Amino acid sequence: MGHEIGLILMSVLESLFQLGLLLVLASVMGWCLDSLPFWLAGRSVGTVRFRLLQTARFWRSLVQVPLGGRPALALTAGVLTLVCLPAVTTGSVLSSLADPLVIGLVVLLGRGFLGPGLVPGEAARLVPAVLLLCLTEALIALAAPGTDGLSGLCAMLHIEPEPGLEGALAACALALGIACPPLRSDDVTQMLSGLRDRHEREAARSIADVLNCGWLLLLGDLALPVSVGLAQGGVQGWWLGLLALGGRLALTVAVAVGLRLMAQERSARLTALFAGVALLLALAGRFGT
């Protein structure tokens, strides 16, 4: 009994640490997504310190004046995503709830609640993302039936590697990143065009960072599921999982920035190409064994 309580407490502590770490990284990733394209083009950009201070002001103000309405729903969606997804290891307390389709829909709904309006054409762009999430769910059910969400999938692939499934998931993640890239700063500005209050606009930008972090973490988990550490890996496995988390997020940010620089975001042709590759790899892996 005492051992079980200890395991539960460790899972809760890991979840809290994961949430705190990802909330900090969300600001850094948001700065990278907004500033790296300009920096690579030789233009001056603001420092990441300013972004972190802005986020700190948001969380301090949130303690004093809680959010309400649509922004509160968007923040809830983002925080729930960061808590549920396996980040460092598969041992976080809610990682068994990290179903790719459900988590993906939660993030997309959160994006819809971010501001009083949507980016023009955003609703139509979400349709391919939902279809790709359904495809991802179907491929997992086909190649790894009975797995318990992303956490169970990561654990299974550690024990029984499935190159076909891993390649298919990576292709799905890339297709999702192309069809539904992280929100740009300009996108958030358009969504907030009806807001005049400066504090509300800054809060919405911080919430957008959280949602972008959750979306990229989902894509990273799909692309590299074996990089997530096992809950039974001990201290060494935890540290390796932490390092792998940093590498996974850095890779997803680099791919997102690269797609933006190459003007390949929301490319229907590339989305269909990688969706087809995912299907072929999954079928080849399924029937080749």
Explain what this protein looks like in three dimensions.
It comes from Gluconobacter oxydans. The chain crosses the membrane at residues 16-41, 62-88, 94-114, 126-144, 204-226, 238-258, 270-288. Keywords: Membrane, Transmembrane, Transmembrane helix. It is built from eleven helices and no strands. It is mainly alpha-helical. The chain has one domain (2-287). The N and C termini lie far apart (42 Å).
Give the DSSP E fraction (strand runs of 2 or more residues): under 5%
What profile does the largest beta sheet have? none
What coarse outline follows from CA principal-axis ratios?
globular
Quote the average pLDDT.
Answer: 86
Distance between the termini: 42 Å
Question: How many domains, in number, for the residues?
Answer: 1
What is the H/E order? HHHHHHHHHHH
Q: What's the number of helices?
A: 11
| Gyration radius, rounded | 19 Å
**Contiguous runs where pLDDT drops below 50 for at least 5 residues:** none
Structural class from helices and strands?
mainly alpha
Helix content: over 70%
What is the total tally of β strands?
A: 0
List its traits:
289 residues, single chain, 11 helices, mainly alpha, 75% helix
